[in-house]
């Protein structure tokens, strides 16, 4: 009844918002919804079904195919957006890849069919009149090159008897299928370029890439210039191909796995990447990993992205070479909401002009530092500049002195009243209590205890847990005893909403007796998936 009242007065936009909130599990509700919408509005049935189907789980959507022609026509395009992803998740991965290969082969045009037949690659047989109803490849939105390769291999291997030169067959089939999928998939918005020689294929299909939103480059460990059959390009050539073709990317991921590249190689890699970044008019996310060299030029290319860039993630990047120009471009990205700096190298402090609002909109800050010293003032300056907007902090700081640790946590306490998630690798007892008392919106707290953590601290801790805290993950050296658990529970305030308390010493399980004490109080003691914003 509640649904009825709401639906009668919603607009087209309202319905979207409403359905978004509704988790439809029962078809009766779905049907009622459709009838109500038809009665109350001029929204077409197709529109409302599409909106509803978007929110179903794949297995639920799958049953919709069999309802009638209209339902089938609406659900198939949604189901086939990212078939590779689904295949990967299924238990019988090999079999599903094989079936997927079969479907793709059935959708090939005559020319490509003939080409494969000429190469003696076996094609699936279909009784006449049973060709696929849909052109499935045209529905794909995500193309994962690596999985297309695995899928091709699966087909060749399961038809082993018919392919005499199986390595050669795999190669031809991979190329043909990738080419075909790129030709057909007008809607693709993500290409995952994992070590496949895309160069000869990509230029032909340039037009189809205009909608591309996301791209991931993953370099091999060394440039392999020699290849007898393929015309293999270098990493920077690969990146350059895309900078000339696309200017609408929102998300760029680059993972460099080269260990021993020459300086020249590195330099051309960074140059190519800088060019790619510069050419994108509305870049939102940039994730770079594995650049232990001067990446100033990449940062400099962020200059035009002052309003669009919302996420920057740096992993294993050397920030020692960073030029003042690069810093200026970086901090001009005032809309940055998420900044992750993990295992980067930097020895010198980075200073901004005092009083400068660096990242006033920052909501998520991740700072993981196992490798070397890191300029702590730099991080403190960032926290201070966030205008109290920070909601998510993760710190792992192996090499931090206790003085620096204190000042870092203190800065957070004073400048982040809106914090929702805090994950710190080591906290002192006094800091624990201070954190619980200061962050009044905290929903999730993860920490490692220091060696002074004892039964009494645990019991005292309970008194400070606020109404908002739902998830608590504690790594301890020694488990508190069952009596301590009882006292912990007794000390909780009446209005506490704690859902999960996961305590672990990394070795044995928590004793059943302790689990039961928590469960009796409605608290789960296993780790469950929780709050993860701004991913
Ligand atoms: C297949 O082989 C035939 C005979 O050699 C040739 O005429 C035809 O062009 C080939 N087709 C393709 C697509 O390569
Ligand atoms: C360039 O891309 C091709 C596939 O597009 C790949 O085979 C090659 O390994 C890549 N080269 C580098 C150095 O990343
Ligand atoms: C690459 O090719 C050159 C010349 O053809 C040859 O000398 C070299 O050994 C090859 N390198 C590899 C890794 O195959
Ligand atoms: C490799 O590509 C170049 C052009 O980029 C072309 O001239 C050459 O013939 C190609 N080599 C092979 C073996 O395909
Ligand atoms: C790093 O690169 C930038 C721009 O490409 C350049 O201006 C700077 O001199 C380089 N720094 C070092 C230490 O090589
Ligand atoms: C907690 O108290 C028990 C006795 O109840 C003691 O054996 C244990 O060592 C204490 N653990 C810590 C970490 O203080």
Automatic annotation (TrEMBL):
A Pfam family for this UniProt protein? Answer: F-box-like
Q: In this protein, which residues make up the domain named F-box? A: 46-84
Mind telling me which residue stretches traverse the membrane in this protein?
A: 22-40
Which keywords does UniProt give here?
Membrane, Transmembrane, Transmembrane helix
| Highest taxon listed in the record's lineage | Eukaryota
Q: Which InterPro entries match?
A: F-box-like_dom_sf, F-box_dom, LRR_dom_sf
This protein is called: F-box domain-containing protein
